[in-house]
């Protein structure tokens, strides 16, 4: 006769388990039937009737029925009498009746008694009775025992939390998932699979709790699905959680909508989350209004984020002020965020100080940001030390930034290794930088690989064009990013294999970008193709940019045309520009032109 006792188990909220919608007429008929049986002395009917009245809130009507059934030895009635007395505020009297029922084998009474002892700080007694309840299969007893053991740091916590979760307790499922999630993050346990693989135990328990209406479980399940790229389902769980009032889910849903291009809907959810105190959502709203040029509204939301305890609010206020050239205010907000431990704010503050000429004030903030993990700050420290001539210290910070994936830092380390003759290590860093998009690194890497390859035989007509080597591919990558020296080199390689059109294209690109070598080589190519007047235009551009050979070529062109004075002028320039061999030839030509002019 434990059934009625189970239905009247006391919950954490102090309320009773409410039955699902019933036919009120049928319940009234059942109550009348039980009342007749109870009046006839049926102990079971007294217990059932007492439980029905208790569930309905009729404590005065329930108490005599439950006392009569308890006196006749009904343990479910003893448990429910304890519940009734607890509701009336007689906790110690309630515990006495729960003890009687628990000793008689009532799992709900053992649970209630364990909760009673825990509330009074008697943990050994609480554990004893909760364990009695849990071992009898009572789900609330298993959960309460797990909660008690977790408070102590007991390793058996997971076992009992799992028992409760397996029997449908949604909070137990959520807390089990959180525990397994933390273990997986710490690397202490695999949780039977990666949480992102669709079969992981973490996801399984979040899903069970979320399906039972647990809003935080829905939030975490959404995050797992989003990370895995299942955005549609992630959005559904975020929406479920957000509708239940979870601000973080509303914020996450806003970001999903923004990424899908629906900024208006995103703003609605961010607003909802921000109004519930979510600083991240307030920052997102600030950024949205800042993008629209609504700086006053943006500032208001950044302040709201800051008031919500989100240090990013102060950092974003600093960025906003810096963009408006409000340097003093930008420094103020950067400092506030930096003192709160915001590493990028510390880096931004250091840059601001450095731009103002305060290098000594900038250095400690760069250091603080770098030690906190800011890759940009580590790179900036490298620049700072390099500017002072402290190359070893600079290299150390460059290496640190490069190790964290900073492209320009990897280029600096690679360049330093090349200067030191460590070509293998240089190649490793240059590959990292080139892969990260650095055109200069791609060019330098190509040059390293180019120096290793054997000479290519001369191209002959009818010969099949050779496949591009790795160094050519890196040259082309740098060239396509606008690297002028790479463009010239790609042009030279194309010219060497007889591809005049491709060579001209790259030489012209380099020349138009200001490369004097590109202009000179384009001139040579045009001259060979019979376009000497156009070639002279490019040689003039190269010579004016300081290219001695181009000046010599122009001197020869004008000499052949009979324009001796112009030829002499370009020869004079070639002498002054060099190099030695060019200067020597140009001097002879100049002297010859001078003699002819004076003859």
Please describe what this structure looks like.
This protein has about 600 residues and is an all-alpha fold. About 75% of the residues lie in helices and about 0% in strands. It is rod-shaped and about 145 Å long.
Task: Give the arrangement of secondary structure elements.
Blueprint lengths: L2 H5 L16 H16 L3 H14 L2 H13 L3 H14 L2 H13 L3 H13 L3 H13 L3 H14 L4 H10 L3 H17 L14 H11 L3 H14 L2 H13 L3 H13 L3 H13 L3 H13 L3 H13 L4 H12 L3 H13 L3 H13 L3 H13 L3 H13 L3 H13 L3 H14 L2 H13 L3 H14 L17 H11 L3 H13 L3 H13 L3 H13 L3 H13 L3 H14 L2 H14 L2 H19 L1
- What's the shape? rod-shaped
Helix content percent band? over 70%
**How does the helix and strand content classify structurally?**
mainly alpha
Number of helices: 35
Largest sheet: none
What labels describe this entry?
single chain, mainly alpha, about 0% strand, disordered N terminus, about 600 residues
Short overview:
By secondary structure, the chain is mainly α.
């Amino acid at each position: 006769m434990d059934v009625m006792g189970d239905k009247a188990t006391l919950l954490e909220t102090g309320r009773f388990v409410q039955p699902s919608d019933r036919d009120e007429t049928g319940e009234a008929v059942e109550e009348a039937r039980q009342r007749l049986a109870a009046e006839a002395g049926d102990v079971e009917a007294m217990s059932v009737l007492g439980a029905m009245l208790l569930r309905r809130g009729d404590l005065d009507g329930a108490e005599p029925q439950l006392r009569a059934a308890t006196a006749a030895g009904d343990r479910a009635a003893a448990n429910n009498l304890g519940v009734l007395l607890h509701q009336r505020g007689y906790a110690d009297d309630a515990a006495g009746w729960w003890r009687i029922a628990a000793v008689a084998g009532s799992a709900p009474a053992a649970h209630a008694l364990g909760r009673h002892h825990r509330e009074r700080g008697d943990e050994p007694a609480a554990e004893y009775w909760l364990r009695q309840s849990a071992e009898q299969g009572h789900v609330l007893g298993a959960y309460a025992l797990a909660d008690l053991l977790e408070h102590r740091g007991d390793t058996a916590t997971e076992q009992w939390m799992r028992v409760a979760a397996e029997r449908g307790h949604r909070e137990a499922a959520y807390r089990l998932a959180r525990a397994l999630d933390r273990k997986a993050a710490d690397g202490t346990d695999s949780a039977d699979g990666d949480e992102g693989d669709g079969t992981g135990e973490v996801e399984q328990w979040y899903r069970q709790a979320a399906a039972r209406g647990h809003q935080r479980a829905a939030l975490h399940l959404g995050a797992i699905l989003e990370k895995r790229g299942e955005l549609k389902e992630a959005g559904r769980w975020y929406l479920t959680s957000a509708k239940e009032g979870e601000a973080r889910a509303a914020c996450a849903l806003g970001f999903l909508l923004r990424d899908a291009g629906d900024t208006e809907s995103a703003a609605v959810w961010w607003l909802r989350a921000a109004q519930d105190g979510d600083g991240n959502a307030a920052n997102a709203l600030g950024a949205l209004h800042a993008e629209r040029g609504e700086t006053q509204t943006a500032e208001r939301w950044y302040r709201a984020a800051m008031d919500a305890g989100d240090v990013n609010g102060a950092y974003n206020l600093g960025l906003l002020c810096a963009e408006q050239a409000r340097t003093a205010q930008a420094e103020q907000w950067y400092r506030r965020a930096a003192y709160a431990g915001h590493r990028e704010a510390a880096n931004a503050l250091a840059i601001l100080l450095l731009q103002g000429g305060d290098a000594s004030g900038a250095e400690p903030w760069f250091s603080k940001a770098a030690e906190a993990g800011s890759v940009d700050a580590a790179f900036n420290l490298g620049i700072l030390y390099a500017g002072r001539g402290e190359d070893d210290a600079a290299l150390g910070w460059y290496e640190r930034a490069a190790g964290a994936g900073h492209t320009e830092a990897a280029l600096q380390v690679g360049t330093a290794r090349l200067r030191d003759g460590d070509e293998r290590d240089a190649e490793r860093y240059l590959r990292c930088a080139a892969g990260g998009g650095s055109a200069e690194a791609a060019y330098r890497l190509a040059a390293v690989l180019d120096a290793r390859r054997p000479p290519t035989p001369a191209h002959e007509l009818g010969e099949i064009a050779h496949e591009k080597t790795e160094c050519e591919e890196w040259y082309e990558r740098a060239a396509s990013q606008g690297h002028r020296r790479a463009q010239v080199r790609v042009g030279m390689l194309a010219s060497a294999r007889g591809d005049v059109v491709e060579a001209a294209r790259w030489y012209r690109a380099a020349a138009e970008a200001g490369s004097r070598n590109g202009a000179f080589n384009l001139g040579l190519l045009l001259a060979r193709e019979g376009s000497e007047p156009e070639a002279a235009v490019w040689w003039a551009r190269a010579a004016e940019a300081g290219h001695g050979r181009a000046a010599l070529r122009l001197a020869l062109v004008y000499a052949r045309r009979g324009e001796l004075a112009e030829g002499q002028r370009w020869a004079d320039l070639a002498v002054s520009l060099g190099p030695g061999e060019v200067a020597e030839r140009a001097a002879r030509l100049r002297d010859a032109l001078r003699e002819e002019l004076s003859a």
